[in-house]
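Bench log, entry 3. Co-assembly request; chain sequences pasted below exactly as received.
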Amino acid sequence: MVVIGIFMVLPMMILVVFSFLEADPYGGVEPVFSLEAYIQILYEIDFDDTVVFNPIYLNIIARSVGLALVATFGCLILGFPVAYFITRQSPRNQNMLLYLITLPFWTNLLIRTYSWILILAKNGVVEQPLLALGIIDDSLGMMYTNGAIAIGLIYTYLPLMVLPIYASLEKLDFRLVEAAHDLYAGRLKVMREIIVPLAMPGIIAGCILVFVPSLGAFIAPDLLGGGKKLMLGSLIQLQFSSSRNWPFGSAIAVCLLALVMISLTIQARSAGKRRAMEG
Amino acid sequence: MKRQRKGFVLGHYPGMNLWTALFFVYLYAPMLVLVVYAFNDSDRAQIWRGFSTRWFYKAFANDSIQDAAINSLIIAVCATVVATTLATLAALAMARTGEFKGRSATLGLISLPLVVPEIATAVATLSFFAVIGFQLGLLSIIVAHTVFCIPFAFLPIRARLEGMNDTLEQAAGDLYANEWQTFRHITLPLLMPGIVAGAMLSFIISIDDFIITLMVSGAGATTLPLYIYGMIRQGITPEVNVISTVMLGISIVFISAYWFMTKGDDHTTTH
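Structure output for the full assembly:
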C-alpha cells in the first residue's frame, strides 16, 4: 500500500504540480509558476505575446471523446448479443466461451493492434485478393483513418464490454422472461422491458471500462492513425518525448484524468441510485 | 396470437448464433493472420509471397532481439517476485485486520493503476523519476513494472484468501504451533494457488507492457515490445511477425494455465 502510495499517488501529484510550471526547452521543467500550459490548450501565444484562440488541441480532445464514444457503442452493439448468447449456454460451454473472450485481452496490445496493420494496409490481407481479382484497381486507403483507429479500439476493448454484461445477465432470473412470454409479450418487448433493464449495471460498467482506456489510448491512434490523427494519449506522449514540453503534457494528462474521474463518478452515482431504489 | 410457433425456443433471438460466430471471427482472425504472416517468404511483412520459415531463423539469430528478450525476462522476473511478495503481504494484512476505517480507500488505492489510463501513469512515473533524480534504465523499468503489477497479483491472492476460513490456523495454534510455523505450514500452502495465479498475471502484464516501458526506459534498455514497436515504425520485415507470434504464444500458454488453474475458484475469474 505504501509502495502504491509512493509510486502512484505521489507521481500523480507531481504531474499536477508540473502542469503549473514553465517548460525547460531541454526537457523537464523550470520551477516557475505558470498557467501557460493550460492556456496553451485553448490559445496560441504569438511571438509578440498576443493571445489567439487555437482550436487544434480542442479538436484533438473532441476527436478523442468522439472516437472513445464510437468505440464504446461499437463494443456495446457487438458485445451485448454475445454476452446474452453465452448466458444461454450450458455452464461448461459458458466457461469455454468466457475463456475464449478473455484470452485475447491478456495478449500483447501492441501485437494485437499491429495485426490490424497487416489486414488493413495497402496490399494487405483485405486488399491483395481484391486487387488480384480485379474488384478494385487502387488501394482503398483504409489505414491512417479515424475508421481504422475505431476498429482497433473496438477490437482492443471488446472483452471489457462483454464480461460485465455477462456478469449481470448471468444473475438474471430466467423465470421473468418466461412470465413475460406467458403474458403475451413478444421477443422484442421482453428484450426491451426485461433483459436490457436487468443488464443495465453491466452495460454501464462495460461502457465505462471501454470509454476510459479508449480516451487515453496511445497504441491504436499511433499505429493505425499513423501518428497524424492524434488522440489525447498520443498527444501526451509527444509532449514528453520529442516536443519536450512537460508542463503542457502534464496539463493534458490532468485534463484526461479529470475526464476519467467524471465518468467514474457518473458510474458510481448511477450504481448508488440503483442500490437506493432496490434497497 | 399463436405463441408456440414451430421452432420457438424461449429466450432465443434470431441471428444470435451467427452474430456470436462472427464476433469470434473478428476476435481471432487478426491473430491468425499474424501467425500465418510469420511464415511469409516476402521481404516485406505486409505483402504475402509464399510460405517459408526463413524469418524464424533470422529472428532467433538476431542479437538485438536476443538482448531485448533477455531484458524483458529480467524485468518481468524481478517485477513479478517483488510485486507478488508485496501483494501477498498486503492481502494478508487486510484479511488479518478485518474491518477497519479506510479499508475501502485502501482497496481503491490498490486498484488505482487499473483505472487510470496507462499513458497518465507512464508520464506521472517519468516525472516522479525526474524529480527524485532516478537514472532511467533497467532499474527504473523494474520499479515501474512492480507498481502496476501489484493490483494484478493482489486480486487473485485476495480472492483465494477470502475463500479460506481460519479453522485450520486455529487448529494449528491449539497444537502449539507458533505464528511462524502456522504461516509456513498452513496459511502459505493454502494460499499458494492464489499466489501462483497472481505471479503469472504479473509476469504476463510485465512482459507485455509497452507504454510505461516506452516512457521510463531511457536509452539503452530495450524490451521486446519496444523493439517490436521500433520495427513497426521503421518499415517492417516478417521478423516482427515472428517475434510477435512467439510472444503471442507465450501469453496464451500462461493465461491458459492461469485460467484452468483458477477454474475451481470461481470468485477469481468472475470478479
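Chain A has two domains: 11-54+245-279, 56-244. The mean pLDDT of chain A is 81.
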